[in-house]
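In this supplementary section we document a worked example of the pipeline. Step one takes a protein sequence of length 421 as its only input; no multiple sequence alignment statistics are reported here. Step two produces a three-dimensional model, which step three serialises into structure tokens for compact storage. The input and output of this example are shown verbatim.
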Amino acid sequence: MPESKGNSGATPVKASRRHIFLDALRGFALLGVCLANYPEFSLYTFQPDSVAAAMPWAATDKVVKFLQYFFIDGKFYTLFSLLFGIGFSIIISHAAERGADGFRIFYRRMIILALIGCTHLMLIWSGDILLLYALLGMLLPLFRNLSDKKILIVAGIMLLIPIAIDGVCEYTGTFLARYPFEKWWYYAGLYGITEENFGTWLRDAPSYREVSQFLVQGAWERLYEFVDGNRYFKVLGLFLIGFVAGRRKIYADLQSHKKLLRSIAIRGIAVGLPFSVLYAISGVNGHLWGTTMHTILYTVSVYPLGGAYAALLGLFCIAHPDLAMWKWFAAPGRMALTNYIFQSVIGIILFYGIGIGLGASLGLAQTEIAATGVFTFQILFSKIWLRYFQYGPLEWVWRMLTYGKWLKILKSDPHNRQTAD
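The serialised model returned by step three reads:
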């Protein structure tokens, strides 16, 4: 790879070189993330069974919960992780074309993303995933010289390791996440957050001071979730699969990879759908067959079905490349970072006491309706924004800090519909 002094030869990918399918897939993943995250924003996830059972749509909520485990849980963060790996391959190849040090650019990009994720985690929402993505993303260059086959083998091992860890821990009674778990409840107790008021604390918060207290203990809760769920192995494995897909440029020539996409779709559905039924049964019943079996069911349902989602969309794009839906989903996809953070801000406004205060009052079905409405708003907002601007606001800042130069954000011709799309 050619070297250059500074980043004078490095620039972000221009709109003309973007692939609309990749942006649309990112937008589709963003919808799923909104549906997956909003039950926590609405505080429904934290309500005791007795409270959930007393809600007006309780019977419907049980069905929605099952469907959420079946179709949503894990599948869309799988897509985002794959897309992250693809993005890494694009950054490196683009930098190489311009004669810049692609890895220096990439590490700077990851450091900035880590800072954004840390800010999101500590000041806005405890469910942040960006910090973990950034830290694990820094490991990706270690695999750059391996063949695709070797990378996929390593990825498969990474995805299977959580089964082995949970099996050993369940058999021996080991609790690997003890330290973050204890820290979580230490800080919760420090602020008076208990199991009894956990599900209503944010709704009843009269000021941001109480929200920030919840975020402190929430950061430790998030670390506990990552360790207890072996999330780092899962994410890194998916990154590597996405990196291989990016190196092969599957997204750039779907037609040439139609046979591969069809194979992924058929096998993903054949394996993922039946095991998703069992995974959903396990999930709604509190890991009915134990932690290890739940992890096994997660592995054989989430990854195949998540891959099938991407492949099916690819096949649909081949068959119907001119549908308006690609542009509609691509708009929020081009602003994925902004929209991801924006979903958190809207969630606070809708559900916390410092906003409208709807938290702990909506059932799961109502929450998902609200989430769908939020994403619909983001589609419209993104379409309008990109009519006048080249990047989303956070994407603009991220790019400028990455490349160390001022980047023009306004479009020269805001009425040019083709450019805006």
